[in-house]
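Section: Multi-chain targets

For targets with more than one molecule, the full set of components is provided together so that the structure can be written out for the assembly as a whole rather than chain by chain. Components appear in the order listed by the source. The example entry contains two components.
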Amino acid sequence: MKITVSINLGGYSFNIDEDAYGELKRYMKNLELNFATEESASEILSDIEARMSELFRAKLTPYKQVITLEDVRSVISVMGTPEDISDEEGTSAREKFASAGYHRMYRDPDRRIIGGVCAGMGAYWNIEPLIIWIIFLALILAGGLGIVVYLILYVVLPEAKTTAQKIEMKGEPVNIHNIKESVKKEFNTVTRKMKL
Amino acid sequence: MDLENTKAQMRKGILEYCILSVISRNSCYASDIIKELKEAKVIVVEGTLYPLLTRQKNAGLLSYRWEESQQGPPRKYYELTPEGKEYLADLDNSWDELVESVDLIRKR
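Its structure, encoded as tokens over all components, is:
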């Protein structure tokens, strides 16, 4: 016996096993992240949902009415993981985010204590927000400067609302591709300097 | 040089060209396009098609209309805009030229 979940995919209602639901949800989240920088991300995602709903419907019979983990895996392999899609398109999502311009400071609503300023700074510099919070507290106790700085930052920094903004806030996690790129850049600067 | 990257770049242009070609014959919905592209082995995973279709639509090469279907929800039927037809004609020419050029070099 298994628990099933009821979902709406492309306007159709499906009963889906709990473990299959987890897998599907993870997949949809990854796709969303992959298309986050795209102009019409929601349109692409709803087209994909419509197609997935078509593929799932083909897997159901009067004697099999629940989507299983196996079904989800098979549909994912037909649609392709975000990596497969990027490879085939000739663009990589990682490349899109790798440029320095995509690292911006935001207020982080997910880990906020008051307005998310400290959490956002923590996400930007990759340090524990609590440490920044303690520094602010110390500044406030030392004469109130902390309050002024906090209020200015609160007004100046936008809140990270969309997935794309949340990625921008954290910058790019370290991966082989980035390391390769930064080494290449370093090498180019050195060779340029040698010529001078 | 990165072989995988070179291959991906080649495929990218060809895939866009093939999508326009398929749609130019008659208006069709995404699953029809996928079927043809899969048969011709220019596409491996289906997810690749949707961002491309949306980008071509945003670029004004395609338009779509909703059509009722007997087997399910309404479907998006894509067709080429006049601009898309011109674009495709250009691509047809440059494809022929490319094939000729490459053949000429390879057969020397």
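Chain A has ten helices and three strands.
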